């Protein structure tokens, strides 16, 4: 049953995460120094976690002994609903109180379901989203590999219909992105809203942008020392995909680290979408996002 999705507080929550989301809402006390990477699944979470971790901790590690060389990014930043509040940690509240600051977290929980303490504090949220075409393909390939342990794989057409109805982990995807999008408009110092496509096009700009947003801008000396370039290189798809930990390591008993590194491109959806699928998803995007000011670059 943990592989199924349940409509819970107006979003489709994986059964395995329901208890975690509830405990997160009930027990999490945000600190003003907290940093939370938030995302809809398969939109570039792994990359953003790696970049944020590398930016925040840049004084502590050199390029040669960096934890990102030997750890999957998801193990360096605790996911609130899946890890901290989901049985993995015996006493989450005690664990949270002993974490070094700034505490770095990740979450897939929709903005509207975040605990009040996180919304009201000065904790920072960095959100990443991605064009819904590539997100679908990435999610379909990923979840089929995970489902295969307990449930039969979904055909492309069936998964697509569910995706169009919003029935996908933490979906509907349009509500997820619009929740964070609206908050980033209302409180730009609280939520930094990023797009996977923008990062692919100009990661240098966004690495600086993230550092400024978090209140730790790069100094002129760091810039001239190539600090930004070395973070970009450390977190690049090509580099991370080839690390031993991401080739043969496992995140948990169900998930191989390599599943987080597939193609890492903009526009791979053209290899999967029929003309009628293109029409249907384009119409949904237009309908759901119209008037929001949010739009996407679909091709590289
Ligand atoms: P594809 O399936 O299109 O290749 P998430 O991290 O949210 O699960 O998203 C996974 C997607 O991000 C996958 O997309 C994956 O290949 C891509 N990705 C992972 N690490 C990346 C990186 N360092 N740079 C760019 N893309 C990355």
UniProtKB/TrEMBL annotation:
GO molecular function, one term: sulfotransferase activity
Record keywords, A-Z: Transferase
Keyword Transferase: yes
Name of a matching Pfam family: Sulfotransfer_1
InterPro entries, A to Z: P-loop_NTPase, Sulfotransferase_dom
Sulfotransferase domain: residues covered: 32-293
Signal sequence range: none
EC number of the protein: 2.8.2.-
The family this protein is said to belong to: Belongs to the sulfotransferase 1 family.
Name of this chain's protein: Sulfotransferase
Lineage, highest ranks first: Eukaryota, Viridiplantae, Streptophyta, Embryophyta, Tracheophyta
């Amino acid at each position: 049953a943990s592989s199924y999705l349940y409509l819970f507080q107006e979003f489709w929550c994986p059964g395995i995460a329901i208890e975690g989301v509830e405990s997160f809402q009930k027990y999490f006390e945000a600190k003003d120094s907290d940093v939370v990477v938030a995302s809809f699944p398969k939109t570039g979470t792994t990359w953003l976690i790696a970049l944020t971790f590398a930016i925040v901790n840049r004084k502590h590690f050199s390029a040669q002994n960096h934890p990102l060389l030997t750890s999957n990014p998801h193990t360096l930043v605790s996911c609130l609903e899946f890890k901290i509040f989901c049985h993995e940690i015996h006493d989450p509240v005690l664990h949270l109180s002993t974490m070094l600051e700034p505490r770095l977290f990740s979450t897939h929980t929709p903005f509207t379901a975040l605990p009040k303490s996180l919304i009201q504090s000065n904790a920072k949220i960095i959100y990443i989203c991605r064009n819904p075409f590539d997100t679908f393909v990435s999610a379909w390939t990923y979840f089929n590999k995970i489902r295969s342990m307990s449930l039969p794989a979904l055909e492309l057409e069936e998964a697509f219909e569910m995706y169009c109805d919003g029935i996908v982990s933490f979906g509907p995807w349009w509500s997820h992105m619009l929740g964070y999008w609206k908050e980033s408009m209302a409180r730009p110092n609280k939520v930094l809203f990023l797009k996977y496509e923008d990062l692919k096009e100009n990661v240098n700009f966004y690495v600086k942008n993230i550092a400024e947003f978090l209140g730790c801008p790069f100094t002129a000396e760091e810039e001239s020392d190539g600090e930004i370039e070395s973070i970009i290189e450390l977190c690049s798809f090509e580099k991370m995909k080839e690390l031993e930990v991401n080739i043969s390591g496992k995140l948990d008993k169900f998930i191989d680290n390599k599943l987080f590194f597939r193609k890492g491109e903009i526009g791979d959806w053209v290899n999967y979408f029929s003309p009628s699928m293109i029409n249907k998803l384009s119409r949904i995007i237009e309908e759901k996002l119209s008037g929001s000011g949010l739009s996407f670059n679909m091709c590289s």
